[in-house]
Design a protein that fits this description.
Elements (H helix, E strand, L loop, with lengths): L1 E5 L5 H10 L9 H4 L7 E2 L2 E5 L2 E6 L2 E3 L4 E4 L9 E2 L5 H19 L3 E4 L13 H8 L3 E12 L8 H12 L3 E5 L2 H16 L7 H10 L4 E7 L5 E9 L3 E9 L1 H6 L1 H13 L5 E6 L1 E2 L4 E2 L1 H8 L4 E11 L1
Parallel strand pairs: 6-8, 13-14
Antiparallel strand pairs: 1-3, 2-5, 3-4, 4-7, 5-6, 8-17, 9-14, 9-17, 10-11, 11-12, 12-13, 15-16
Helix pairs in contact: 3-4, 5-9
Length: about 325
């Protein structure tokens, strides 16, 4: 049977080493990323041991008022992080002891579980979806993300391709950038003007995360002939996948097709050796509302749908 240990900071090295060796973990599960906003959540991440060996992790937080465990509200996804030796039967066993632990140790009445989308797995790792089914989990939210399968690329729409060519002809250049403040100014303005919201991360938070993960968090930008940033995208890089955490363009950049030029280069050259490029979700209100203009823009680059789901389990 499995022993459950609630995570504490003394176990950070052990936790991080397991994430890096797992078959479905990403750098977002390393504590240097998770804990940048630890003050906002009551952490109740769990570590699962079998015969003294760490075999799985669950990034999670606890909301006392709701008597609910979430996996994890501070992350886009947060399901069970698994080692190679875990089988379907063992994952079912983990779910049984995990849900019992939540009931008995926390007094929880519900768990909201966000599986890791399959594109992030280094090998098949969907045993948890079967365990969810066996515990009568119900679909809680569903976000539609747009993903380019680089091994089977759908060509850019003619309009996207021609706009990208025209942008380059106007003197726009694209490449990696170190000017995160300039991009954040564009991003903040766009989100305020279009949605009356601010970026999820502050500039200071993203600078901190980029300093901790310089090989994983990179900024790419498009510039005009005078060297002014017109558009940018902040990419989260993983061994076989890249995720667009933020994309933004100034008004002038939109007029000149800067994002089209930037992503034509990223897809066609910079990330040509990756398996997937994930643009992220285009939904709000738990998936009940689809931003049709945004999803059409992403699909214009040859992206198609992958689901970001969450499930609710009554305990």
């Amino acid at each position: 049977m499995f022993e459950i240990v609630r995570y504490t900071s003394e176990r950070q090295a052990e936790w991080d080493a397991f994430v890096r060796s797992s078959r479905n973990g990403t750098f977002l599960f390393e504590r240097a990323y998770m804990d940048y906003h630890a003050h906002r959540f009551t952490d109740c991440s769990l570590m699962f041991f079998r015969e003294g060996r760490l075999v799985a992790l669950l990034p999670a937080n606890w909301v006392e008022e709701e008597r609910t465990v979430y996996s994890h509200q501070g992350l886009t996804y947060g399901g069970l992080v698994m080692g190679d030796e875990l089988t379907a039967i063992r994952v079912m066993d983990i779910f049984t002891v995990m849900l019992d632990w939540m009931r008995l140790q926390l007094g929880a009445v519900r768990m909201v579980y966000k599986p890791i989308p399959y594109i992030y797995n280094r090998c098949p790792s969907e045993e948890d979806l079967y365990a969810l089914f066996r515990h009568d989990a119900v679909l809680h939210t569903r976000g539609i993300s747009s993903v380019v399968d680089m091994a089977h690329r759908i060509p850019l729409r003619k309009g996207r391709k021609s706009t990208a060519k025209q942008a380059l002809a106007k003197g726009i250049t694209v490449g990696e950038s170190a000017d995160l403040p300039a991009f954040w100014q564009i991003l903040t303005q766009v989100l305020h003007d279009c949605h009356q919201v601010s970026p999820v991360h502050s500039l200071e938070e993203m600078q901190l995360l980029q300093s901790r993960f310089p090989e994983h968090i990179r900024l790419y930008a498009a510039y005009d002939a005078d060297g002014r940033m017109l558009a940018g995208t902040l990419m989260y890089e993983m061994p076989h996948l890249v995720h667009a955490q933020y994309i933004a363009s100034s008004t002038e950049g939109k007029e000149m097709g800067a994002v089209d030029a930037l992503y034509a280069w990223l897809i066609g050259e910079r990330y040509a050796d990756k398996r997937y490029l994930d643009f992220g979700i285009s939904t709000v209100q738990g998936g009940r509302v689809l931003n049709e203009g945004l999803v059409r823009q992403k699909e214009g680059f040859g992206a198609r749908a992958v689901m970001y789901d969450s499930y609710s389990i009554n305990l």
